[in-house]
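[retry 2/3] Translocating chain-associated membrane protein: previous attempt timed out, resubmitting with same input.
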Amino acid sequence: MAFRRRAKSHPLFSQEFLIHNHADIGFCLVLCVLVALMFEVTAKTAFLFILPQYNASVPTADGEIVLYHYGLKDLVTILFYIFIAIILHAVVQEYALDKINRRLHLSKVKHSKFNESGQLVAFHLTSMVWCLYVIVTEGYLSNPRSLWENYPHVHLPFQVKFFYLCQLAYWLHALPELYFQKVRKEEIPRHLQYISLYLVHIAGAYLLNLTRLGLILLLLQYVAEFLFHVARLFYFTDENNEKLFNAWAVVFVISRLFTLTLSFLVIAFGLARVENQAFDPEKGNFNTLLFRMFVLLLVCFSQAWMMWRFIHFQLRRWREYRNEQNARQRAAAAVHGKQQSKTVKRESGYHENGVVKAENGTSPRTKKLKSP
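[retry 2/3] Translocating chain-associated membrane protein: success.
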């Protein structure tokens, strides 16, 4: 009990210390792993953190190539890149977003959303370019049949496995960042919803050996999300700038249609025609009717939930636009009424049948002329 009391009062265990120095702690841990590479005794353990594991040489027509599959050691690699993501998050925040925030003078709510969108713009842009490069170099676009042929795709190229490990590391790092960034309690459920969706879909594609389909679906998703957060950044700088939201709405609907179409094509038609249809977890084969129905239901549920959120967002924007228009009309009518009241001034009396009447209805007294 005495140790617990001392630990709570020690600055290393305080909440403020962890919030303000979490990136420095992560940098020290990463540096320790990199220093371990310099010594022969610890180099093997350090490579376990840095490089993907479970490599195997596979003979091909052009010779042997090194491919990878997944295993429990991947958790160690993911842990290392979680600290890398925390460091990069702090770099983007300090050297880019904080400098912009000082110039914009945003409110606390907008400040939090601006930081969120700024971080996700950087991540989505990097992931889009990286994902597109992997898809093109691996030939998944030029040969769409490769998305389901020779399933299960147990052996992965280095860049495919490394991409998935980094994606899992980023979305796992987003969980402690909710604490480090002091996200409001009202915003935490929304953050947890989309973080959980990304983790479930990315981990599902990785563990169920649907990595090729997962790459293309991630690319579609990241394009739509990138446009949304760019539009939100421009909206915070100028609230009258909403044209990018219209472009995002079109891209969002198209990406949902492509996601559903491609998922049905690969899972319901492609995998259904593959000869090897058996449940064999040791070989990484999950190609059964129940498996295909489960994956399709998961994809349809997530797309329906996203469309419902999209429609709710558009309706809210429409209501806000209508309220703003009504407020402007009432303000314009009030200004117009004030202008009319200023131009048409009432005199102290008014005319009735050619006779000037006073306010009480009596005619004013005639002015007596002084005698010369």
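[retry 2/3] Translocating chain-associated membrane protein: The beta strands are 55-60, 63-68, 279-280, 285-286, 350-352, 355-357.
[retry 2/3] clearing retry counter.
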